Amino acid sequence: MTMPRSGEDNAPALYQQVAQEIAAEIKAGKYPVGSRIPSERDLAEQFKISRMTIRAAVDTLAHQGLVARRNRSGTYVARPRFQFDLSSREGLHTQLRNAGITPGSKVIVAEQVPVASLDAEIGEALQLEADDEVYRIVRLRTANDEPIVIENSYFPAALFPDLLDYNLSDSLYGILKKHFSFESSGAVQKITISHLDAQSAEFMGVTADLATLEVKRSAFTKDNQPFEFAHDIYLGDRIAFTARTVGPALNLGIPLNAEAASE
Fold first, then answer.
1. Close Cβ partners of 46 (under 8 Å, ≥ 6 residues apart)
2. What is the pTM of this model?
3. Strands 67-70 and 74-77
4. Helix, strand counts (H, E) of the chain
5. Sheet of 133-143: strands edge to edge?
6. Burial of 156 (C-beta count, 10 Å sphere; 0-12/13-18/19+)
7. What domain range includes position 220?
8. In the chain, which stretches have pLDDT less than 70?
9. Amino acid 259: pLDDT
10. pLDDT, tens digit, for every residue of 84-97?
11. Structural domain tally of the chain?
12. Are residues 48 and 178 in the same domain?
C-alpha cells in the first residue's frame, strides 16, 4: 500500500486508504464471506499504523456493509445485502428477479377482519369507518430461499371483493391490476430502525432482537385514493434501500414526493 506524502492535495485520509485496501482484498476473495478478518492489533502491525486509525478504517467498512463486528469474537466479512429501490414502481419481487435473484413468498395469514379490531393508524391511513372491514395479508418474503422481510398488508374489503380467493403468494399488485384494475400511482413511506420481535423471528427462522428496518407505507391510486396500508419488517443486515427524489415537474398528487410499489 502506498501512503500519500504529508500535505498531498486531495489525498484520502489514512484510515480511508486502509479501508479501501481491505475492501479490495475482500472483493478479491482473500477474505471470503463469513470469514474473520485480522484483528485490529494484527492490522496495525501489517499497515504500520496506530490501532486508532485501524479502528476508524474498520468502522468505515462496517458502515459500508462489508464487515460486521461480533462481540468478543472479532470482525467478519458480511454477506452482500440485497438492494431495494424504494423510488421504483417495480416491487421487491420484480427487482430481485431483475437482479438475478430468485424471489419467493409464503402466506402466513390471510383473513378479513373489522378495521376497528386493528391499530387506529390502519383505518386512518385507508380512510375507513369503524364498521368497515379490511383484508389482512401477512407474508414471508425470501430471496434465494433466504428470509428477508415480513410483510403485513391491509386492503379495504369493499374495494377488492374475494381478494383472498386468489393466489396470494403471487404479486399482490399484479392481482390488483389484473383482476380489479387498480394500479399504484405513488406511496408515502416512513422508515424506522427497530429490533426483530419474537413472533417475526420465529416466522423467519432467526434469533430475536436482530436489527430491522421497518417500512410503513400508504399506497394511492392516480385519483389519490388510498388502497393499501403496509407495515413491512426487513432484516437490517440483509437489505439496503435506495431512493430518488422526484423532480418538481412531476405531480404525484400525494402528500410526500415518494413513489414506490410493493408486490
1. 38
2. 0.69
3. antiparallel
4. 7, 10
5. 103-114, 133-143, 146-156, 226-235, 211-220, 186-195
6. buried
7. 82-242
8. 1-11, 245-263
9. 37
10. 877 777 778 788 88
11. 2
12. no
Q: Are residues 49 and 120 in the same domain?
A: no
Q: What is the pLDDT of residues 137-163, one digit of tens each?
A: 999 999 888 899 999 999 999 999 999
How far apart CA 187 and CA 86 sit, in angstroms, is 10
The answer to whether residue 40 is domain-embedded is yes
Reported as type and span, the H/E element at residue 52 is: helix 51-63
238 and 129 within one domain: yes
- For 54, 70, 81, 93, the CA distances from 30, given in Å and listed in that order, are 18, 20, 19, 33
CATH number at 69 reads: 1.10.10.10
Provide the 10 A C-beta neighbour count for residue 172.
26
CA distance 71 to 220: 44
Chain position carrying cell 409464503: 106
Do both 193 and 236 map to the same domain?
yes
Examine the domain organization and report whether 106 and 21 are in the same domain.
Answer: no
Q: Are residues 125 and 218 in the same domain?
A: yes
Specify whether 112 is located in the same domain as 237.
yes
The cell 421497518 sits on which residue?
214
